[in-house]
Each structure stands twice: as structure tokens, then as C-alpha cells.
């Protein structure tokens, strides 16, 4: 078509996610077990569903304001204060978004311009780079493999200095997808000490914050760097509400006043029914993630024991619900091929590490947001696969 050459040229930099490509390539395998999805296998708690039903019955079917339902912003403000010691005023420092994905889109399109660079510790969730590319900016990855996927202040500062004036933002995600790495208070404070020296935005995707398995719990960088941080969060992971599409941007008033400009023209406002459900989630359901965490830890430890015995190298994740495992050296390190062969020979789907960028090659990601029955069967099939797979 003649019109094709008139699209935004930056679309040429964007391809269908390798995760989706892989899923399509094995979708015809009968009865396949999937350890691929980045969403809880739990259902949304009943009391949250009841709150949504009540909102429907009360004819709450109209737009909220662009920032979202005030009652929800008040609940979100109180939640992050209690959980993470953060101070955000519900009137002008919180935006309700359509999931964390829209929060990221609204944020990155608001702050980035052509020629800007964004630093991102890698391997990383593949959804960030396309947003940056679409506005003409570039993601620059920080390779964390040599330090067991843990970013250090020294790595961060070296990368900042290398980018110079082109650098507009540093994008953090922790607990991290795909590695499950998270950071202690001491580590977060050290990052903040570096970042406060530079005029850069800190976009912190903390959507897995309630799935942190360390004794001290999640520590937000916004506690130490509130004036620079744009904090992204949501209810998809914490309350098993992926389909409700409910997220948040937390930022100081001056930043929020700019961010709402991109947010409002992307979506107008989040679903009103979802917002009423979210009020319930953040008040009566503020501890809903706790029983999920107990189950996730059991699953994590089971998989680590099984895969380690099979020769995989695994850095024990301290958050989220993913295992990022090194393919044993005696096998082909082409992660896409490895996962395709596993799917076709044993009907189990896991995600190739290359889907998370070049620094993920040679690894595979498994989601333990699946039942123990499914996980147990998948581990048995993995053992059978390795016993016959060509080395």
C-alpha cells in the first residue's frame, strides 16, 4: 500500500515481542503446559469482585476525572504511606492509569524527546524499549550479568557518565522481571546518592513491590529521591487483577502537572468500575498479597531444587514470580531453539532468555505463577527432555 511509507518512521525500530513470537511458534502443541505468563494464577479476591458489582449496581458508569477517583487516590496515598513510607498528596501527586503499562507509556512519552537516552539495567522486561523508540529516544542497557544481575552504584555512575548530556532518565524495575532480583534499603540509598548528583528523571517500575520475599520488605527509591522519581505501580500482580487494568503514577506535584497532559490524551481516564474495585483492594484488601507470597515461595524453592539438580545455574530470586536460569553449558546456548525444542518434544512452554535482550541469551525464564501440579509435571518433563536432548 502506498500509505505504508507515511507511518511514523520510528515504528521500523519496533518488532513484535519475542515472547509473543515464541508463544505463536509453539501454540499448536497439543496440551502444552505453560510456565510463561507474567500474571498470577490466583483469582481476584471475592471482596474486590463484590465491590465492582456494587459499583455497577449503583450505576457508577460515568467518567471519573482525568486523575482518577478521589477516593481511590486517597486510598493509594494511604497505602504507600503505610507500606513504603512515601508521601504523595491525593489531590495533585497521584494519577490513576490503565495498568502500569499505560503509566509507563504516559511517563516516557511525556519526558522523552528524539535523541534522548534512557539507562536500563539488563536483562530487562522487553516492554520499555518500544515506548522509548516510538518517540525517537534510545534505551542503553547496563549489563548486570557479571554481578549476578545485581546493579551496583559503580555500574550506575559509570553508565551515567558515559551518556553525558544525552541522558534523560534512568529506568529501574525491581523486584525485577525476568530475574527476580530486588534491592535492600542500603542498596537503594546508594543508588539515590548517585542519582541525586545528576539532572535526570528516575522512572521506577515497582509493580512487583508486594511480591518481595526479603525480611525487610520492599524499599522504594522514591523514599530517598522524591523530587526526581516518577513511581509506577499497579494492582495486576499484588491483587491478581491483570484484566482490571488498574495502575498508578506517583510523582511530586510539579511533575504530575506535566504527566497528566500525556495521560489524559492517551486514555482520558481509567475504567470507573475498576477504580471502585481498586478502592476495596487498597483498603480492606491491603494484605491480599500475603497468602499469594507464601505459595509463590514454596513454588520458587521447589523449582530451584529440581532445576539445580539438573545442572541449571540459578540466582535465587527475592521477589516477583520468575526463575531466570542458565542453560547448562553442555547444551546449545541458543535459548529460542532450546525452548522451542522443549515445547515440541515435551509440551512445556518456558520463555527464551533472548526475549529479554542480548544479555539474556543462554538463559530461560520460567513463571511460577502456576499451580504446583503444573510445575511438578513441567519439572518431570524437563528431566526427560534433558536426558535425550542433543548436546
Structural topology:
Elements: H1 18-25, E1 33-34, H2 46-57, H3 70-84, E2 94-97, H4 99-111, E3 117-122, H5 128-134, E4 138-143, H6 153-163, E5 167-173, H7 185-195, E6 201-205, E7 229-234, E8 247-250, H8 253-267, H9 272-282, H10 289-309, E9 313-314, E10 322-326, H11 335-346, E11 348-349, E12 351-352, E13 363-367, H12 372-388
Parallel strand pairs: 1-11, 3-4, 3-5, 5-6, 6-7
Antiparallel strand pairs: 2-8, 7-8, 9-10, 10-13, 12-13
Helix pairs in contact: 2-9, 3-9, 4-5, 4-8, 10-12
Q: Can you describe what's shown?
A:
The protein has helices at 18-25, 46-57, 70-84, 99-111, 128-134, 153-163, 185-195, 253-267, 272-282, 289-309, 335-346, 372-388; strands spanning 33-34, 94-97, 117-122, 138-143, 167-173, 201-205, 229-234, 247-250, 313-314, 322-326, 348-349, 351-352, 363-367. The protein is an alpha/beta fold. The protein folds into two domains: 9-43 and 289-387, Aspartate Aminotransferase, domain 1, CATH 3.90.1150.10; 46-284, Aspartate Aminotransferase, domain 2, CATH 3.40.640.10. The strands form three sheets. It has a seven-stranded mixed beta sheet, with helices on both faces. The chain has a four-stranded antiparallel beta sheet with strand order 9-10-13-12. A two-stranded parallel ribbon has the order 1-11. Strand 3 (117-122), helix 5 (128-134) and strand 4 form a beta-alpha-beta unit. Helix 3 runs parallel beside helix 9, helix 4 (99-111) crosses helix 8 (253-267) and helix 10 (289-309) runs parallel beside helix 12. The radius of gyration is 21 Å and the shape is globular.
